[in-house]
Specification:
- By secondary structure, the protein is mainly β.
- The chain is 0% helix and 58% strand.
- The strands form four sheets. It has a six-stranded antiparallel sheet, with no helix packed on it. Strands 9-2-12-13 form a four-stranded antiparallel sheet, with no helix packed on it. The chain has a three-stranded antiparallel sheet with strand order 4-3-11, with no helix packed on it.
- Strand 14 and strand 15 form a beta hairpin.
- It starts with 12 loop residues before the first strand and ends with a strand.
- The N terminus is likely disordered.
Length: 168
């Protein structure tokens, strides 16, 4: 007797919002610098659940999707099943306006095909103080503090958190 096995892979896709939350003092906005920002993520294949090392891409760089007419910002073959997964930056406002206790502010939106975003490495961010002074290369993985010369006050971001949420 011969057994036949048919494998069906659901190629999941969906829009994923990157939301941020934080507490601030004298900050008006957080920015990643537009389409040239280099996004750093860990991703997981939706079929075999394998996780990657950190991947990166820029929103300004487009690649042709394999066996498709579309384009994406990042693509790779799954290590286990050898099918192509891809990510496209769909929406990216120039900055996220924030208030004293910002909760769930949209920073970017991604279309993910065959993979999930599981970790973001928030590096090289820009912070704008209420007086308009720009601070570059902000590291928000811990409490971030700088001094605003114009207002002679501290500029502070703490309890910075992010979440990936399926878009509605």
């Amino acid at each position: 007797m011969i057994n036949y096995y048919i494998f069906f892979f659901e190629f999941s896709m969906g829009l994923i919002d990157l939301l941020i939350s934080c507490e601030i003092e004298n900050v008006s906005a957080i920015s990643f610098g537009g389409l040239d920002y280099e996004w750093h993520f860990k991703i997981k294949c939706t079929q075999c659940q394998s996780e990657t090392d950190e991947i990166y891409f820029k929103g300004s760089e487009q690649k042709d999707i394999v066996n498709s007419r579309g384009q994406c910002n990042f693509q790779m073959k799954c290590k286990t099943f050898q099918f192509v997964v891809n990510i496209t930056l769909v929406k990216s406002p120039d900055h996220a306006a924030i208030t004293n206790k910002t909760k769930n502010v949209l920073l970017a939106q991604f279309e993910c095909r065959g993979c999930e975003l599981i970790k973001w490495n928030p590096q090289n961010l820009f912070v704008r103080s209420e007086s308009g002074q720009i601070f570059e290369n902000a590291d928000l993985t811990d409490v971030w503090v700088e001094y605003d010369d114009k207002t002679q006050s501290n500029v502070l971001i703490e309890n910075f958190k992010y979440a990936f949420v399926r878009s509605k």
